[in-house]
Structures are given as C-alpha cells and as structure tokens.
Amino acid sequence: MHESGQNATVGGATYASERNGPMPTPVSERLPTQNRRMPVSSNPTHKRRTSQETREAVLAAARRLFFTKGFDQTTLMDLGEETGLSARGVILHFETKADIIATLLIRDYTARRAPMVERPQGSTHAQRILDFYFWMAREDAANFIAFPALWSVSARWSPTVEAEMNAALRRMREPVRSELSRGMAAGEFRGVDIQHADDMIWQSYQHGLRAVSVNGGTPAMAVPQVFKTLEALTA
After folding, report:
1. pLDDT over 90 (residue 9)
2. Nearest 5 degrees, angle CA 27-CA 31-CA 3?
3. Closest Cα to residue 195, out of 182, 181, 209?
4. Which residues contact 80 (CB under 8 A, 6 or more apart)?
5. Spatial separation of the C-alpha atoms in residues 22 and 118, rounded to whole Å
6. Which of 229, 159, 157 is nearest to 199 (CA)?
C-alpha cells in the first residue's frame, strides 16, 4: 500500500484516506455519473416492425407472389418466408389467405374513381351503365391475372372483411345506381328496387368473369353478361 497525502493506492485503485472512518471508497466510484464512461453494448437493438408495418409487408409480399405464382399456388408459408414470419405469424394479422386478397381488392376498389363519360345526345342510361362496366373490365385487367373472381373466395372471408368489401363495392358502383334511378324515372327500366337491380347487374358481371377464368379471355368478355341483364331490366 502506498499512501500519499489524503489518498492511498491499493492494487492500482485510489482511495480517499480517512482516519478512524469507514471502509474507504474508490475515488473513481465517487465521480459524477456524467463523467464516467458507460459500457458500449455489443448487441445493439434493431428496430422492430409495428403491427401495421408487418401487415403492409404481408400485403406487399402477397401482391407480388399472387402475380408470380398465382393465388391458389401461394401458401401461408410462402408469405412467411417473404416477410420473416411463420405461417402462424401471418395468421395473426390475417385470418385467412382469402382475407389477404380481399384487403388488396378493397384498397383497389376504394382507390378507383369511375369516369362517367358524356355520351352523345340520345344515348340511353343502359349504355352509360355498359360504359361503367367496360371501364371496370379495363381496371380489372391487371388484377385478373393474379386475383380470381370474387365468387371464388368470398365464401371464405371473415365477417369483418366481408362488410368492408361490400361497403367498398357499394361506393364504387354509385354511378350505376344513379343511372338506374334516372332510367327508371325516364321509363327506360322497369320499376324494380334500385339496390336489387344494381346487385343483379354486378352478379352478372361476376358470373361472366367466372366463365372467362375457366375458358380463358379478358374481363371485357364478361360485359356481355351485363348487357343481357340490362335487357331484362328494360321496360
């Protein structure tokens, strides 16, 4: 032990020397906290994704895989491998694969804004509705490659997703209901419930898409089914 003034050094540590006092405390331990060098962690923490960020990652992977592999061929395990999750981890964010495709379609339908083009004088309301469905077919052309028609997955949607889908479809088809209302007022269509007529026309388009998906072709080839329904509604 080497003693110098009021300090003493033992084994390389410097202590404050106090006669008849308690066990000395190393001077280094009495330094203010802000003057000490804090140890640097050898395992820095990585930023974790939030639940919403994980959902977005799953949706992005699903859109990519549905286009490259197809909806039926893409598994939950595929989605997990793309996003760093287990298949169970994917299910924590989406109850079924059908809910994933529904979420993608809801976003697509919500973003669409139907342009009701001014037709020449004398055009009918039925022709305007056909215009709407030809526009729908053009918008559906890209998605149709990856997404099956709604009829093939709708039975597997959760109640919440089904309600969101129906709301998105109703908003998107508002121009059709407007034309039906005007057409009935003008005597062009028979006096039927507008909502029922709108649903009939939509279902005919979906049935047309089903036939196209089986036999081959493009969504535009489903529009003649809409024409047949409009003929049945014409007074």
Report:
1. no
2. 15
3. 181
4. 86, 87, 89, 90
5. 97
6. 229
As a whole number of angstroms, the distance between CA 133 and CA 203 comes to: 12
pLDDT digit string, tens, across residues 123-141: 899 999 999 999 999 988 8
**Is there a contact between 94 and 61 (Cβ–Cβ < 8 Å)?**
no
**Facing residues of 2 across strands?**
9
Residue 51 identity: S
Q: How far apart are CA 142 and CA 144, in angstroms?
A: 5
Q: Looking at the DSSP assignment, which residues form a beta bridge with residue 26?
A: 15
- Residues in the chain, total: 235
Identify the bridge partners of residue 8 per DSSP, sorted by sequence position. Answer: 3, 15
**DSSP bridge partners of 15:** 8, 26
Catalogue all structural domains in the chain, each as residue range(s) with its CATH number.
2-30 (no CATH), 51-94 (1.10.10.60), 119-233 (1.10.357)
Q: ∠ CA(81), CA(85), CA(82), 5° rounding?
A: 30
Angle ∠(217,219,223) on CA atoms, nearest 5: 110
Q: Is 70 left (phi over 0), alpha (psi -120 to 50) or beta?
A: left
pLDDT digits (tens, 9 = 90+) for 64-122: 998 888 888 888 899 989 898 888 888 888 888 888 988 898 988 888 877 655 555 56
Tell which wins on pLDDT, 10 or 122: 122
Q: What is the pTM of this model?
A: 0.69
Q: Which two tokens stand for residue 110?
A: 């919500």
From edge to edge, which strands make up the β-sheet containing 13-16?
A: 2-4, 7-10, 13-16
